[in-house]
Amino acid sequence: MKTRYTLLTTAVVLAAKLLHADLIFEDDFESYTAGQVIDTTKWSLVLSGADNVNTVHVEQDTGNLFGKGTGNQYVDLLDNSTNPGGQSIYLTKTGLSTELASGIVTLNMNIIEPEGTPPLSGNDGRILVGIGDGTMAGTDRANLPNWNETSAGVSTYGTVPVTRDTLYNVNIVFNNSGSSIQYNSPSGLQTLDATSADIWIDGVLQAENILQDRSWDGGIAVDSVGFRSFSGSAQRLLVDDYRVYDEALVIPEPSTLMLVGVALTSLFVFRRKR
Q1: pLDDT single digits (tens) 69-89
Q2: 143: which of 91, 195, 199, 252 is 20 to 30 A away, CA to CA?
């Protein structure tokens, strides 16, 4: 009984946090035409590279990779470039400086990094995820994590090994404010230093207080979020259910979300009985 009460209490706290959180931007990629380049209704897209083999397509999930049915759609970021210049894909959402004025940003998404089979020439390049000053191309940006192969079948998020062809839910909590913050997490109260980030994978803290790269010092307003590729080698990333929040937040696993639903239902029933 005590265990059930503890779980219910945890779920209630998570439910309250989720209800309070401000969702700034989201895209489940269902509004686009499958099989075509993502349009610029929500995003800005720049493709570069001399060999012109980089694409950002919205695809129908015929293989049910994301577990949402074969009618689901996701975005496929493919950098198949061997261009030594490296910077090949910029997919950004800009104009968020007012909503993200605090500098505290959480990115939540489901991702799959496919194995390096055709049309890829390899899978040892990098696709970066992060926040920026509006361009994601200058020095004022924070790109975490690097989807970057370090050994066969394994990628790394900072120091976190992730298996290819596997579905993960990823939360990246950025603190671009001038001081450390604390936020509620599945493992308790979490402290995040200034100009640092925490990476949560499937609800588990996998990288803590990672210093944001580039010259990101907390003095630059956050205006954009997005993806970019950077390398002379190929890389590919599949993304679904991309969300941006204006605070530090860890989105629970589906099983925990079910518990949250039970908690909310219990609260409703309790209030009705009163």
Answers
A1: 999 999 999 887 766 555 578
A2: 252
